[in-house]
Amino acid sequence: MGDSFSQYDIVIIGAGPSGTLTGIAYKNLNPDLRVAIVDMQTFPRDKSCGDAIGPGVINALKRFGLDDILYDQEPVISTSLSGTGEVEINNYIPEVKNKDDSIVYVIPRKELDHKLLVKALELGVEDFTGYRYLGMESTKEGWSIELSKNEKILRLNSKLIVGADGANSRVRKSLGVKSNDDKDKALAIRAYIDSPNFVSHFNERSLFFEINLSAERGYAWAFPSNRDLVNVGIGIPLNIFKKENLDINSLLEIFIERLRSKGIVVNNVRDARSYVLPFASSLPKFSHNHAALVGDAASMINPMSGEGIFYGMEAGYILAKHTHDKLSSKKLNESIGLYEKEFRKRFSRHYLSCTIARRVLEVPFMTKRLLNVAKYNQHTIDFIIELLFDEAHLTLKELFLLIGKFLLPINLLKIGSKNTSST
Description:
The chain is of the alpha/beta class. Helix content is 36%, strand content 26%.
């Protein structure tokens, strides 16, 4: 696998989707690059997540011909939103801009991450899973990276280090980048259940979101995977969680009981695990001297949905695009800076719009009003879904339209409206 001073072009810390797609991107753009991927876990391994991958992720997989990992998965085609006032809206996932597919897959991360890692290794990315990242020291040509496994120390030299090591990134800490404040984080918990009637309850494979019910100012989800498997969870802003001294396990139990009260069969609740989500409402600097952060390590998580896989994958590709041919050049740091510039230009307005939406949805009255508007206005519900799964953002026109709809009496919205299917 290499000696204690092996030289690499890129060393990626973290073998989740952001890390593996970064490696895949580099090897596609320049197969001769020597790329290593490091993760303290061995694969397959579980990872707490909602498991839903939308049109953006599907598009990112297709870019490198990786969509065959989806062939045995059952697609989800609709959403069901429930909120304050017991408003419930069912809607098909709308066609999204610049994406081929308007569907979602729900794949346990234990399966998804392992498949992607195998793809990366097949391309020649070198495997250092099972190794713990200890730290890094600056060298003339980049970094000396210290790893350990079974009390054995290993050092890799690299021109570029990529931190893809998640919400509690040790690479981010090594670079001196502070973690997000509590107001820009959420605490979530995920579990799996078996439900033989979940799909039939919604008449199709549908993502179920519940806003401001089981957790005030938070949201819960139930996403159907293959067969009877359903991913269930709940998330709440971390500052609210701490202020109100909440119990995340109790909130999950409340949500599961609400599912049962709807007539949904819940069997074999298992694998409950909590995790922290650093939101992109506070993006840190993620381009550094011979170093870059991608994915959760760079707080690239949608503040509205909690989804981060798509953004991490795109970040890895954009980074590789700008730097794959500059690794031995004096322009490497400039190219890393171009990565950050392009990413921010593409996603900043989207993240801001999702942050505004999250703040609105933290207020029960606003949630109730927004869902009532969406119930009778197809454009509004489509826009909400696009914020969750695409790169939509508020324009001045969109903002004025929304304000107008908020101010209109609901009875006027009903007149001439194109109703969504609702209950």
